[in-house]
Design brief:
With 426 residues, this protein is of the alpha/beta class. The chain contains 12 helices and 21 strands. The structure holds guanosine-5'-diphosphate. The site of guanosine-5'-diphosphate (GDP) has 24 residues, from helix 1 and strand 3.
């Protein structure tokens, strides 16, 4: 069976933990989109890890970790990440990289930096990992697939052709040093050495695995609101964050994705620019940021403080719908135990009208939150294993949100560890 683990919001919902937990019963975990621009934080017996490229199943001996064709593959990052986990005594994971995955080129990272510099105050808040230039090139058909590393003559010729365009931009738009074709070729040959042991026809591998009844997890990065089509365009990422894209980015039939587990955090956080209706500021935000996640809400890749907000039912209802949610995993609920009262955003007021359907970006910019305040539970809920043992006000908070979003909350995460999970049989 194939299941997807995806985010309903702006990312950082705790997908890594849920994937890591579900990976116990999985055979294969696949990354199908995005690149090293976002990270998952995982806490387990080996230590605490921030993964950017490897799927969150690499800590188990029985799983195969796959980088699908939809990923923006940064080969040195992959290589270093494998090293960083094996250095901490994690057994060498089984890793496969799609021969159709495209590679982040050194100049993609430079172009990302140069463009952010050029846009200055109007920038998108990119993590400067080269993701937008990478996907632009992929769709402009000047990207490089892993498979191309194995035909050196054709590769040389293509580099020469692609670099003409790049150098025009470097010289005239960015006024930066030009790219040297030979240097790029040599770098790619280094990449070839690093990636060669893992390269495989991933879609064929997965096809057979599905036939054999293997359990496959598709691990999404970021969340619905960062999807280029359905998110808060243009403050989005450059590849689809939706479970549906899992079929494309892994190369499997769409009808095989039977379960879509959408991860939803008990409050909101976001990174980068863009409208964030339920955002809070000042001391209130600092307190939540400090207590949030596991050791505070700071970016796993960049370390930058995340923007904080109350739970947003409008955004989450939409985020769950657009994912095609079958199950909601409600995470980081333990963090809210310090609050006397917990505001929740239940509607958006736009030009005097209250709506509960998530609007397009131009309207979103004008939206003001309609808040409803629920009583807090003022208790540490970590360690609780059964739903009925949760404090009444905590259950009321969960059930209120479940009703507002309209999708079943079947898992409640009350701590960063694998075992901090309450399964709710619905
Ligand atoms: P992802 O990108 O969706 O995987 O999310 P991140 O890893 O960026 O953020 C989730 C953070 O919350 C990490 O630091 C996790 O260790 C932590 N976390 C996940 N679930 C829980 C939970 O239920 N409670 C607490 N306190 N922390 C959690």
């Amino acid at each position: 069976m194939v299941q997807a683990v995806v985010g309903a919001n702006w990312g950082d919902e705790g997908k890594g933990k849920i994937t890591d937990m579900l990976a116990e019963n999985a055979d294969i975990i696949v990354r199908f989109q995005g690149g090293a621009n976002a990270g998952h934080t995982i806490v387990n017996n080996y230590g605490k890890f921030a993964l950017h490229t490897l799927p969150s199943g690499v800590f188990y001996k029985h799983t195969t970790s796959i980088i699908g064709n939809g990923v923006a593959l940064n080969i040195p990052v992959l290589f270093n990440e494998i090293k960083s986990i094996t250095d901490k005594n994690v057994p060498m994971p089984k890793i496969l990289v799609s021969d159709r995955a495209q590679m982040v080129m050194p100049y993609h990272i430079l172009f990302d930096q140069y463009e952010e510099e050029r846009l200055a105050g109007k920038s998108f808040g990119s993590t400067k990992s080269g993701i937008a230039p990478f996907y632009s090139d992929k769709y402009a058909k000047i990207g490089f697939q892993v498979s191309e590393l194995f035909d050196e003559a054709a590769l040389r010729e293509k580099i020469d052709r692609v670099i003409v365009q790049k150098n025009i931009l470097l010289e005239h738009l960015y006024k930066k040093p030009l790219i040297d074709a030979e240097e790029i070729f040599n770098t790619l040959m280094e990449y070839k050495k690093m990636v060669e042991p893992y390269v495989c026809d991933v879609s064929a591998f997965l096809w057979n695995a599905i036939k054999e009844g293997k359990n496959i997890l598709l691990e999404g990065q970021l969340g619905s609101l960062k999807d280029p089509d359905h998110g808060i365009y243009p403050m989005v990422t450059s590849s689809s964050t939706l479970a549906a894209y899992g079929a494309i980015g892994a190369g499997i039939p769409p009808y095989e994705i039977k379960k879509i587990i959408t991860v939803v955090k008990a409050y909101s956080s976001a990174v980068g620019a863009g409208a964030f209706v339920s955002e809070i500021f000042g001391d209130e935000a600092d307190e939540l940021r400090k207590r949030g996640g596991d050791g505070g809400e700071y970016g796993a890749t960049t370390g930058r403080p995340r923007r904080m907000g109350w739970f947003d039912c409008v955004a989450t209802k939409y985020g769950c719908r657009i994912q095609g949610t079958t199950d909601v995993a409600f995470t980081v609920l333990d963090v809210l135990g310090y609050l006397d009262e917990i505001p929740v955003c239940v509607g958006y007021e736009i030009d005097g009208e209250v709506i509960t359907d998530f609007p397009t970006t131009s309207k979103l910019e004008k939206a003001k939150p309609v808040l409803k305040t629920l009583p807090g539970w003022k208790e540490d809920i970590r360690g609780i294993k059964e739903y009925d043992k949760l404090p009444l006000n905590c259950r009321k908070y969960i059930e209120f949100i479940e009703e507002q979003i309209g999708f079943p909350i079947t898992m409640v995460s009350n701590g960063p560890k694998r075992e901090d999970i309450i399964i709710r049989n619905k």
